[in-house]
């Protein structure tokens, strides 16, 4: 892979025609940094920017509270599939987790507590939607138009714009004929209708992904009948969960270093999964046998066992964890339906074989827009095109999952190719936030008005990632998954270890960027090869310390 060259001294932009920024609507407010989203990513960005001395930070959140996906996903059984000792901020340990895998209410409470303790909530604006954001090249600012409660409009002009919207924020509804005309209740799993009583009713769950396998065993005992519509059987391994006893919780609260030791052990245990995903899928043979045993233990009917046994390699799709899903499918009031859905009638669901099954409530658990981030439709770059338009042609791409050519001073958190199939996204978020904060520090130290990743650097980064993807189980495992976009590229997952990603994002590599607004831009330090490990790669000891 070619190595990125050092940038030339900064010069004035070429005299190309640049579209004008949108006219401000309502009040315009100048801010240094605007962050979209108040989940783990947006909150982390606000906290770390404040710690770095950047106090003029506004976080715009469409919901009424912090939490993001953990605020929105309140369905029965909602819980994390990464142990909470690791699925939490390294700088805000929580000794009060009730179990190794914490349920949604505890995670949401943790985010709220961390936000309150951080002292940054004064800069958060809730119940406010970002309508449009466009780069104003003349002012070197992002002009962001928002709509708040009551329809009031505020326009922000921000030096940097950070998107923490994430890939699990916009629910994806299936395109099924007649769904809009169904006579009962229909709702997505992430928009759970707590006012709908399921007791004694006929319920259909469409989908067998991560949300569905938590919902099904939670509602199966109370419904009259449950139909679970499966397009592809997932791999489901046992959930090695346990509650912390009184003495263990006391030790976690009082013994210095114990919680950090738990975190490190979980981190390195999870990292041991990486070779099975990215190099040799056959290494996952023990996990595959555990999944098959999980089927045999949970299901007695041979035909049902066959129907839930995947026909692709473990890891090709997201690996799920549950001890209760298979017994719920095996229950007398549950039917697994593997025929495709042809249409929905006012009173039921008709499958491809012509069978109509009566149903009172339809729960849609069909995931989210992960390879087509809706926020990109509202981001307009220097050339006047939206990021959605750009990515339709090229597929999602961002240098280090963070920056995109033609979109100066825009930073993504949980951007393209930062997702994980094995470990904590909070670790990746902290890594990207460190990159963001160092970029802001670099801009301030050198009086840069704008930084924009060089197109050739971004292309080389993405080409290297896609080349690495070819040997991963996500490409060779024999499945079609939501990890892949319309071009057949995996633009969702990171194909290396997480400590490698942390090394790549430890410092802002200004040589990979076009800069504007300073006379002392670096001209002699070459940019590192986009996915090579820099000289500051952490040792095992260092990585464990920062896990």
The main sheet comes to: 8 strands, mixed
Principal-axis shape equals globular
- CATH architectural group of the largest domain: 3-Layer(bba) Sandwich
How much of the polypeptide forms β-strand, as a percent range? 15-25%
Radius of gyration: 24 Å
Helical fraction: 25-40%
Oligomer state of the chains in this structure: single chain
- Determine and state the CATH class of the largest domain: Alpha Beta
CATH superfamily of the largest domain: FAD/NAD(P)-binding domain
Task: Give the topology.
Elements: E1 27-36, H1 40-51, E2 57-60, H2 69-72, H3 104-118, E3 124-125, E4 129-136, E5 141-147, E6 153-163, E7 185-188, E8 202-206, H4 212-219, E9 225-229, E10 236-237, H5 246-254, H6 258-271, H7 274-278, H8 285-298, H9 302-307, E11 320-321, H10 325-330, E12 334-337, E13 341-344, E14 348-351, E15 356-358, E16 361-364, E17 379-380, H11 387-394, E18 410-412, H12 425-446, E19 450-453, H13 455-469, H14 473-476, H15 498-504, E20 513-516, H16 540-546
Parallel strand pairs: 1-2, 1-6, 2-3, 4-17, 6-18, 7-16, 8-9, 8-16, 9-12, 10-11
Antiparallel strand pairs: 4-5, 5-6, 13-14, 14-15, 19-20
Helix pairs in contact: 1-12, 12-15
Written description of the protein model:
The protein has helices at residues 40-51, 69-72, 104-118, 212-219, 246-254, 258-271, 274-278, 285-298, 302-307, 325-330, 387-394, 425-446, 455-469, 473-476, 498-504, 540-546, and strands spanning 27-36, 57-60, 124-125, 129-136, 141-147, 153-163, 185-188, 202-206, 225-229, 236-237, 320-321, 334-337, 341-344, 348-351, 356-358, 361-364, 379-380, 410-412, 450-453, 513-516. With 547 residues, the protein is α/β, with parallel strands linked by helices. It has two domains: 27-170 and 369-546, FAD/NAD(P)-binding domain, CATH 3.50.50.60; 179-234 and 273-364, FAD/NAD(P)-binding domain (3-Layer(bba) Sandwich), CATH 3.50.50.60. Strands 1, 2, 3, 4, 5, 6, 17 and 18 form an eight-stranded mixed sheet that branches. α12 packs parallel to α15. The longest helix has 22 residues, at 425-446. The chain is globular, with a radius of gyration of 24 Å. The chain starts with 26 loop residues before the first strand and ends with a helix. The relative contact order is 0.15.
